[in-house]
Design goal:
The chain is mainly alpha-helical and 307 residues long. Helices cover 74% and strands 0% of the residues. The chain has one domain. The two termini are 39 Å apart.
């Protein structure tokens, strides 16, 4: 199936010609750049480099973990819209905006970019909405499955007096959100085969993320019990599902430190991973924001020449 096949029953989005989308898009880029600059003091490249494990595979695994989401998004929108390669930096910016600015601000940023692309003739708002609902469904489904798997390990590892209650509460929260999302199936715009395909891509991306995260920590501390990595990978996925929470990686590090307690090596490793993720946000976020502002300038210049 090609990307054009999805346009049969979907509304056509005409490329925005007015200036408001350009200025709003610039506003998002400037806001992202400001937040990136504000975060500079929280991540020291020298300290991260000094704390990096000896394994040569740690850094590539960390980068693969970081890029898993934008790669999956690019595959999805490539199939839906025939998204060009230059859409990938925007998807990276989408992830960073959601993490550092506000939840779903990245979707607005991506939608504004799509509106200004004359080649993306099938870019309805409903498609972005469907992709996000399916991402939430896949994330909650996998989190519930991992909760069931990790629960025995949590008790066995004695990860703190509140660990069982925290995981049980998370299960109730995820189960409730699953019911709400499934009840809203009438909101879907895309046909069922496309929905199933997108759900499968999201699920594969989430599984890959859990495995890459476990591999990352295993490369640094190969002697730690596998149950610890399963439990902590589950916790990281759960924290990632929380809405309206900036800097989820740092929040995860704080919660994990509280649960693990005196396991100094484990706490240090999780803190290193979270700080390294923040550093990647800063590096990629700054690059994407500057690239977006440059693209806006070029587009504006071409428009003035045309007039």
């Amino acid at each position: 199936m090609t990307g054009a096949a999805t346009s049969v029953d979907l509304p056509i989005l005409v490329s925005a010609k007015g200036g408001w989308t350009r200025w709003l898009s610039r506003g998002f880029s400037v806001a992202l750049l400001v937040v990136v600059v504000a975060q500079l003091g929280q991540a020291s490249p020298a300290a991260i480099r000094a704390a990096m494990p000896d394994s040569p595979w740690f850094a590539p695994t960390l980068l693969a973990l970081y890029l898993a989401l934008p790669v999956a998004d690019w595959i999805i929108f490539r199939r839906l819209w025939r998204l060009p390669v230059d859409g990938f930096p925007v998807l990276v910016g989408k992830r960073i905006s959601n993490e550092l600015l506000m939840m779903y601000s990245g979707e607005v940023y991506f939608y504004l970019w799509a509106r200004r692309r004359t080649g993306l003739t099938t870019a309805p708002f409903g498609t972005i909405k469907d992709v996000n609902i399916l991402s939430a469904l896949a994330g909650n489904a996998l989190a519930l499955l991992l909760l069931a798997i990790a629960y025995p390990f949590v008790t066995e590892l004695e990860m703190g007096r509140y660990a069982n209650a925290a995981l049980a509460s998370a299960g109730v929260m995820l189960g409730g959100s699953m019911v709400i999302l499934l009840a809203s199936r009438r909101l879907f715009t895309l046909p069922l085969p496309r929905l199933a395909e997108i759900f499968a891509i999201h699920l594969a991306r989430l599984v890959a993320g859990v495995l890459l995260c476990a591999l990352l920590w295993h490369l640094a501390l190969p002697d730690a019990p596998i149950g610890l990595w399963i439990a902590l990978s589950t916790l990281r996925l759960l924290v990632g599902r929380l809405p309206l929470v900036p800097n989820k990686e740092l929040l995860f590090a704080a919660i994990a430190a509280f649960l693990v307690g005196d396991e100094a090596d484990v706490v240090a490793l999780i803190g290193l991973t979270s700080t390294a993720m923040l550093l990647l946000h800063i590096v990629f976020g700054g690059a994407v924001a500057l690239w977006a502002l440059t693209q806006d300038g070029e587009t504006s210049g071409k428009g003035e020449e045309a007039r």
